[in-house]
C-alpha cells in the first residue's frame, strides 16, 4: 500500500522525497531540461547537483537513452516528468537508482506510478486540479515511505496569514476561472506577487524559505478530495477538447494533456498575434529551466547547448488550454492563427 503525505507545495513534496532517499550535498539527480525552476529548487537547496538530460521531441518528456548516458557513480535518483500531462513510459528507463515521477501536470489517478519509488503532485494555479497551494507525495517504496513518515512530524502548519492569503487567492482563482479570465489576469498576478501582496510562484530566497518546513494548508487539505473528484468529472470534456485540437492541429497527443503543444516558427510572434486576437496561448516552458535565463540558468546548473531538443522546444513550442471551460470555437481560431506561423515541415 502506498503512503500519501501532504506538503505546502509540490516542490516541498519533492524535497521531502529526496531527504527520505538520504541524498547529500555533492550527489547527483538526473532530470530533464525543458522543465520548471520549481523542480530544480529543492535540489539546489539540498546541495545536490542537477544533471540535465535532453528530451524526446514528440513527448517533450525525457529521452531514456540520454538518461542512461547521464548516470554516474554519484547518481542518487532520476526525476521523470510527464510534461503537459503526456505520459512517459517509465518502464523504458533502465536505471539502478530510484525513479521519482513528476506528476505536477497530471490529474491524480490517471497515470500508474507504482513502478517508481514515489511521485509528487501539485495543486496550484495552472495545474489540472486546483485546490490552492499544496503538493502531495505518493510513496511506493516501503523503506522510503518509512523514512518520510518519520520525518513528517517536523513539518508544521503554515502561519495564519499564509492560510488566509492562500484561501483568498483560491476564491479569486475560482471566480476568474468561471469568468474565463484566468489567463488575462496572469500579468497582474505576477506584479502583485512581486510586490508581496499575493503568494507568488517562487519565494524570494528558496535557500532560507520557511515553506520547506510546512505541511499543506488546512483549507487546501479540506478542498483537495472534492477538487480531485471534480477534476475527474471534467475529464470527458477535456478529452473532447483534446480530440478537437488533434483534428485541427493534425497532431496526436496521448494521455490527458494539461496543455496542448503546438510548434511555431516564431514563438514571440505567435504570442503577440494570439494576444491581439484575444486567444490564450502559453509560453511555458520558455527556457530549458523555465523561467530562468542568462546567469540564472548557469546558477541552476544548466549549460547552454547541452540539451538541443529542450532548447528547440523552448524556442518553438507554445501551448493551448485544455481546461473544461475552454470554448470549442477558440480551438479552430487558434488552429487558423497558428497555421500561418508553423515552421516548414513541422507539426502545428
UniProtKB/TrEMBL annotation:
Indicate what this protein is called per its UniProt record: dTDP-4-amino-4,6-dideoxygalactose transaminase
**Which keywords does this Swiss-Prot/TrEMBL entry list?**
Pyridoxal phosphate
Fetch the Pfam families from UniProt.
Answer: DegT_DnrJ_EryC1
Q: Superkingdom, according to UniProt?
A: Bacteria
Q: Which GO terms describe its biological process?
A: polysaccharide biosynthetic process
One GO MF annotation is: pyridoxal phosphate binding
Q: Which family does it belong to?
A: Belongs to the DegT/DnrJ/EryC1 family.
Cofactor field: pyridoxal 5'-phosphate
Quote the InterPro entries the UniProt record gives.
DegT/StrS_aminotransferase, PyrdxlP-dep_Trfase, PyrdxlP-dep_Trfase_major, PyrdxlP-dep_Trfase_small
Amino acid at each position: 500500500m502506498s503512503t500519501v503525505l501532504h506538503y505546502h507545495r509540490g516542490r516541498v513534496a519533492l524535497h521531502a522525497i529526496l531527504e527520505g532517499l538520504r541524498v547529500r550535498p555533492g550527489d547527483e539527480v538526473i532530470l530533464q531540461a525543458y522543465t520548471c525552476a520549481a523542480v530544480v529548487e529543492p535540489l539546489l537547496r539540498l546541495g545536490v547537483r542537477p544533471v540535465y538530460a535532453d528530451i524526446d521531441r514528440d513527448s517533450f518528456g525525457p529521452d531514456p537513452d540520454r538518461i542512461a548516458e547521464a548516470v554516474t557513480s554519484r547518481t542518487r535518483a532520476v526525476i521523470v516528468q510527464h510534461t503537459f500531462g503526456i505520459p512517459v513510459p517509465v518502464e523504458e528507463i533502465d536505471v539502478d537508482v530510484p525513479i521519482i515521477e513528476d506528476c505536477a501536470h497530471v490529474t491524480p489517478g490517471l497515470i500508474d506510478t507504482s513502478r517508481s519509488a514515489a511521485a509528487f503532485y501539485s495543486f496550484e494555479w495552472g495545474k489540472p486540479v486546483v485546490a490552492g497551494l499544496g503538493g502531495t507525495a505518493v510513496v511506493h517504496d516501503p523503506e522510503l515511505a518509512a523514512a518520510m513518515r518519520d520525518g513528517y512530524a517536523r513539518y508544521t502548519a503554515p502561519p495564519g496569514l499564509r492560510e488566509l492569503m492562500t484561501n483568498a487567492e483560491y476564491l479569486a482563482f475560482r471566480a476568474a476561472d468561471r469568468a474565463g479570465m484566468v489567463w488575462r489576469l496572469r500579468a497582474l498576478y505576477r506584479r502583485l506577487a512581486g510586490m508581496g501582496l499575493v503568494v507568488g510562484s517562487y519565494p524570494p530566497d528558496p535557500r532560507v524559505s520557511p515553506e520547506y518546513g510546512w505541511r499543506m494548508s488546512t483549507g487546501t487539505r479540506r478542498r483537495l478530495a472534492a477538487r480531485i473528484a471534480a477534476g475527474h468529472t471534467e475529464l470527458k470534456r477535456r478529452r473532447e477538447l483534446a480530440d478537437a485540437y488533434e483534428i485541427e492541429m493534425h497532431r496526436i497527443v496521448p494521455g490527458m494533456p494539461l496543455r496542448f503543444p503546438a510548434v511555431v516558427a516564431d514563438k514571440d510572434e505567435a504570442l503577440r498575434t494570439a494576444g491581439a486576437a484575444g486567444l490564450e496561448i502559453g509560453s511555458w516552458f520558455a527556457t530549458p529551466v523555465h523561467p530562468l535565463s542568462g546567469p540564472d540558468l548557469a546558477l541552476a546548473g544548466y549549460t547552454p547547448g547541452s540539451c538541443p531538443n529542450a532548447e528547440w522546444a523552448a524556442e518553438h513550442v507554445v501551448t493551448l488550454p485544455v481546461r473544461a471551460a475552454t470554448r470549442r470555437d477558440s480551438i479552430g481560431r487558434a488552429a487558423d492563427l497558428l497555421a500561418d506561423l508553423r515552421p516548414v515541415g513541422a507539426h502545428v
